[in-house]
Design goal:
Chain lengths: ~300, ~350
């Protein structure tokens, strides 16, 4: 394949892709840049990532590095945006700040080009401006980039609204309802979180998701509950838990080993929320599902027992 | 609001002398020093903390429990650039769940980027004290921190070559002077005494000693208990130990504003918290032809884990060996000793080969 025939930009299907994917894809689509998305997560991808990333980093980072590896040599450059902050008190986990440079260092010998979009409002790059500059770097005019970003952010908003709507429909359904709370890149990942959700489906339980909620509403709820929680993504999860918990019969906190923000926010949730059974599942690079199945099963038994459905 | 508080801050290296100075001189409030960190502190902290949180959270929580046992009724917790922002809120919740009654001043609540909130934080500690006095104590405490960091750096660079054992005595006398200081002249006198006393000791230092640079996360690398006294252990092997990571270099003097530009090749953007400083320091040590580099980090520290691939590349480019150390709630330093000895042997052998 010649240089020109290769897609311009490779996007790893991991981490913030599950949150901002529609935005990025629409942005490139409007600008007419060809993209290549890495294949859905699999055991092989995770194992490759675990070999590449530092041993102690989180499962999601290992997964990301595995996805990056599948793109090496198959596109002109790999897109890893750097989400740092939206303002003084609106932060992201430090890991998202570092992934671009970390990937550059891990894959240094491959000669692969990486490209980033630096979203850092504290240093003068709020999201709109960051994408404008990113578009300019790709060789488009500022006007074109702005237009692309506007359309892209509308696409993201629409998806959020759709998620919110479908969630509300789900919440109206009869039967036992369980609220799954965790980063979207864990819950939606076909290798990490999907088996858990499938398991719940198979057990005939309605699964609500804490991250399917309009971000602003969720963050307001979190600010009252935990004023110094400043990771936007965690705020949304915590807010989602608070707003949906009345509808749910039980909460499952799904986290990856050793997720920094989750290690603290989940502890706070467990300590401050009363009256709802909570199960914490920490996913590791294990391959078997049996342990998790057993835990979900007994958790559902507790819920059924509480509701008097099991005597 | 209470007028006679007994304020405590968790232990953080020897910096508590400056924190105590601010509370006592600036706010005229009694300061309770928690007992020195010990196995018990760590056990108390680890038992009551979530498993996957970093070790400094556990250690500071343990220190807070010991401070409350020692009679403190108000605890102040600082904020920072990583998870540290969230330490206070969770630690307060854990302590309340344990049944302690106390006031908690969480500086993270006031860290909103507005200057007004900084004043509010100062008033929360003692509403009746003058801001001028508080401001002056902050300035004087900053001088104390500078002297402390300068003395500490000097001590670890030289104490390995002192055959008499005088250095250690002088250093610890200086530390206790700082804890006892009541005014700026006290601080300066303590510092001058230490400098003079150090000068009087004859060192047997070779012209080209083995030099090892230490970098690491903000808490573990600066707290001798948490890093199992790694600096003293190395110095005792006859190493000149350098550590640029301290409060003075990172906050007070901040003489290198363009660190990110200097390490551009390795890291274009900040990777969070101490990462830029750490990478820059590692590069600085490497450029100065140090014999080795040690990264001291607590388990689960996010920014420090993220810079490991950078350090690996730096090590390759500059041909400098790096030892990565991860500290958890360890109960013994035998493992550390073995690794340090092996690292020292390797560094020493490398010298013979390259010379």
């Amino acid at each position: 394949m010649s240089e020109q025939k290769m897609p311009m930009i490779g996007i790893p299907r991991a981490m913030l892709y599950y949150r901002y994917g529609p935005l990025w894809e629409r942005f490139f689509q409007v600008l007419g840049v060809s993209t290549l998305l890495s294949p859905p997560s699999s055991r092989g991808i995770l194992e490759a990532g675990a070999r590449l990333a530092p041993d102690e980093s989180c499962l999601s980072l290992k997964m990301l590095m595995g996805h990056v590896e599948t793109l090496i040599g198959r596109c002109n450059c790999i897109f890893i945006p750097r989400y740092s902050n939206y303002g003084y008190t609106e932060l992201f986990c430090t890991r998202y700040e570092g992934i671009y440079d970390q990937a550059r260092n891990i894959f240094r010998s491959s000669g692969q080009r990486f490209i980033t979009c630096n979203i850092d409002a504290q240093n003068g790059f709020p999201e709109a401006k960051a994408f404008e500059q990113f578009g300019v770097e790709l060789g488009f005019t500022a006007k074109e980039s702005r237009r692309a970003w506007r359309e892209a952010s509308r696409a993201l908003e629409q998806r959020k609204k759709a998620e919110d709507r479908s969630q509300k429909e789900l919440a109206g359904k009869p039967g036992i309802k369980v609220l799954a709370a965790g980063h979207s890149y864990i819950l939606s990942d076909p290798y990490l979180g999907k088996p858990i959700l499938d398991n719940l489906d198979a057990a005939g339980v309605v699964t609500l998701r804490a991250d399917a909620l309009e971000p602003e509403t969720a963050r307001k709820a979190c600010a009252r509950f935990s004023p110094t929680c400043r990771w936007i993504v965690s705020e949304e999860i915590v807010g989602g838990v608070l707003l949906w918990k009345e509808k749910a019969d039980g909460i499952i906190l799904v986290s990856a080993f050793p997720c920094g923000p989750d290690s603290m926010t989940n502890e706070l949730l467990i300590r401050r929320i009363r009256g709802v059974p909570i199960l914490t599942l920490v996913l590791d690079a294990q391959s078997g599902m049996a342990g998790i199945e057993t835990r979900i099963e007994s958790f559902l038994d507790i819920i059924r027992f509480q509701k008097g459905a099991m005597v | 609001m209470k007028q006679h508080r007994k304020v405590a801050l968790p232990r953080y290296g020897e910096y508590n002398c400056a924190l105590k100075y601010i509370v006592e001189q600036g706010f005229e409030t009694e300061c309770i020093l928690p007992p020195p960190l010990s196995r018990r502190t760590e056990d108390l902290g680890a038992r009551n903390s979530p498993d996957l949180v970093c070790t400094p959270f556990k250690t500071t929580l343990g220190s807070m429990i010991e401070a409350l046992e020692a009679g403190a009724d108000t605890i102040i917790m600082v904020h920072g650039a990583c998870r540290l922002n969230y330490f206070g809120e969770l630690q307060e919740q854990i302590l309340r769940d344990l049944g302690y009654h106390f006031d908690f001043i969480n500086l993270s609540l006031f860290n909103t980027g507005k200057k007004r909130d900084i004043l509010r934080a100062l008033r929360a500690i003692n509403p009746r004290r003058s801001m001028i006095r508080a401001g002056r104590s902050l300035y004087e405490a900053a001088r104390m921190v500078e002297h402390l960091d300068d003395t500490t750096s000097f001590y670890y660079q030289n104490c390995g070559f002192d055959p008499t054992g005088q250095y250690r005595k002088i250093y610890w006398r200086f530390i206790s002077d700082m804890y006892a200081a009541q005014s700026l002249p006290d601080i300066q006198e303590g510092y001058r005494n230490a400098v003079r006393a150090f000068e009087d000791v004859a060192l047997s230092k070779p012209p080209d000693p083995i030099r090892i640079g230490i970098i690491g996360d903000y808490y573990t690398v600066m707290d001798p208990f948490s890093n199992l006294e790694i600096e003293q252990k190395l110095a005792d092997m006859g190493v000149e130990v350098h550590r640029l990571m301290n409060i003075t270099n990172d906050m007070l003097r901040n003489s290198n504003k363009n660190k990110q530009a200097k390490i551009r090749e390795f890291s274009e953007f900040s990777m969070g918290a101490s990462s830029t400083t750490d990478i820059w320091q590692a590069q600085n040590f490497a450029e100065r032809n140090f014999d080795g580099l040690i990264q001291v980090k607590s388990a689960c520290c996010m920014p420090e884990t993220d810079i490991m691939p950078v350090l690996a590349n730096l090590s390759q480019d500059y041909k400098i060996p790096v030892l990565y150390l991860t500290y958890d709630s360890q109960t013994s330093d035998v493992g550390l000793m073995t690794r340090l000895e092996a690292f020292y042997d390797m560094v020493e052998m490398r010298r013979k080969v390259t010379l």
